[in-house]
């Protein structure tokens, strides 16, 4: 197996080379993909349309294309429109990441035990889905099959809303006339909640633009929840209901404890109506050992031909 990487930025290519992230780093997209069996697109979401247009002429017949974008509706639509019918597209979204970008912050254990959302296109073959399932398992993640609309709504709740809340908190506090003094008191709690605001601005912009409707729905739900808290605390001339406030925090504490303990729902899901996908072992064999197996079969055929020729020569002797 040979892993080839490319990036539009020279600094990223150089950083990947220093970290030995790839067997080979190419400066041109066509050179990186023209012999590929599996192609992984890891760019901001809105860059994928142009990327798919640019790569389409170089795609080998039968290759599998996947991505790791945080939203899927637009990405699958572009894949259907722009990629040739001779390739398969399987949407992917590993639910893991960090706010520090670049190859210098790479972590080989990043995906370990994390859900890896898989959203195959309507035209994707069983083989293609099996190969990307294998890829997810190979990096230690747990494949998680999910519908397109479900994915974009659910990740808006647990991924996109959190970094908007983080960003809004920084905006709310930093715009205060007293920010220079407030900032001196910002300790671990504030830093933990606002960590996501340090993430890549382009990535966050593209996520919000490409998944606006589900995100707005969850913003509205969050505002309603926050307003309930406000009503509890702003009780006019009466002091807040101490039991109601206690219940509010206790319910949230218990809900989070169940989530952390894994008691909410199992992460992995299967598609009942779909045929069985290849196992990790068989799919790994198809992906990485197919070439060796084909060469072995050709050698066996050559040996049989050679044996047949020797037998024929013996029979022809006087």
Structural account:
With 318 residues, the chain is of the alpha/beta class. The protein has 2 domains: 4-148 and 267-295, Rossmann fold (3-Layer(aba) Sandwich), CATH 3.40.50; 152-233, Orthogonal Bundle (6-phosphogluconate dehydrogenase C-terminal fold). Helices cover 54% and strands 10% of the residues. The protein has 13 helices and 7 strands. It has helices at 10-18, 29-33, 48-55, 73-82, 126-138, 148-174, 179-185, 188-193, 201-210, 212-233, 242-261, 280-288, 290-316; strands at residues 4-6, 24-26, 38-41, 64-67, 88-94, 115-120, 142-145. Strands 3-4-5-6-7 form a 5-stranded mixed beta sheet, with helices on both faces. β6 (115-120), α5 (126-138) and β7 form a beta-alpha-beta unit. The protein is elongated.
Task: Please summarize what this structure is.
The protein is an alpha/beta fold. Helix content is 54%, strand content 10%. The protein has 13 helices and 7 strands.
Q: Mean of the pLDDT scores?
A: 86
If strands are numbered along the chain, what order do they take across the biggest sheet?
A: 3-4-5-6-7
- Total number of β-strand segments? 7
Count of the domains = 2
CATH superfamily of the largest domain: NAD(P)-binding Rossmann-like Domain
Low-confidence sequence ranges: 268-306, 308-314
Order of helices and strands: EHEHEHEHEEHEHHHHHHHH
| Helical residue percent band | 40-55%
Question: Which word captures the global form?
Answer: elongated
Radius of gyration: 26 Å
Q: Write the CATH fold name of the largest domain.
A: Rossmann fold
InterPro entries: 6-PGluconate_DH-like_C_sf (IPR008927), NAD(P)-bd_dom_sf (IPR036291), PDH_C (IPR046825), PDH_N (IPR046826), Preph/Arog_dehydrog (IPR050812), Prephen_DH (IPR003099)
GO biological process, one term: tyrosine biosynthetic process
Keywords: Oxidoreductase
Protein name: Prephenate dehydrogenase
């Amino acid at each position: 197996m040979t892993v080839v990487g490319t990036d539009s930025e020279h600094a990223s290519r150089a950083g990947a080379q220093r970290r030995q992230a790839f067997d080979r780093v190419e400066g041109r997209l066509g050179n990186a993909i023209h012999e590929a069996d599996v192609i992984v697109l890891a760019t901001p979401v809105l860059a994928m349309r142009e990327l798919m247009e640019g790569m389409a002429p170089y795609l080998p017949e039968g290759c599998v294309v996947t991505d790791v974008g945080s939203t899927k509706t637009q990405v699958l639509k572009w894949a259907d429109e722009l990629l040739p019918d001779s390739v398969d597209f399987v949407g992917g979204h590993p639910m893991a990441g960090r706010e520090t970008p670049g190859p210098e912050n790479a972590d080989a254990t990043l995906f370990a035990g994390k859900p890896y959302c898989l959203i195959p296109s309507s035209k994707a073959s069983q083989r293609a889905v099996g190969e990307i399932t294998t890829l997810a398992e190979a990096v230690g993640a747990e494949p998680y099959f999910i519908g397109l609309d479900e994915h974009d709504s659910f990740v808006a709740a647990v991924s996109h809303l959190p970094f908007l809340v983080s960003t809004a908190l920084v905006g709310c506090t930093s715009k205060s006339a007293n920010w220079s003094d407030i900032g001196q008191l910002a300790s671990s709690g504030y830093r933990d909640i606002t960590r996501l605001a340090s993430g890549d601005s382009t990535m966050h912009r593209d996520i919000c633009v490409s998944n606006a409707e589900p995100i707005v729905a969850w913003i509205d739900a969050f505002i309603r929840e926050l307003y309930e808290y406000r009503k509890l605390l702003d009780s006019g001339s009466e002091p807040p209901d101490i039991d109601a406030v206690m219940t509010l925090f206790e319910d949230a504490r218990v809900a989070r404890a169940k989530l952390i303990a894994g008691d909410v729902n199992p992460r992995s899901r299967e598609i009942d109506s779909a045929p069985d996908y290849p196992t990790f072992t068989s799919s790994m064999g198809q992906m990485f050992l197919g070439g060796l197996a084909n060469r072995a079969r050709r050698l066996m055929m050559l040996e049989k031909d050679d044996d047949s020729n020797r037998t024929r020569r013996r029979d022809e002797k006087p």
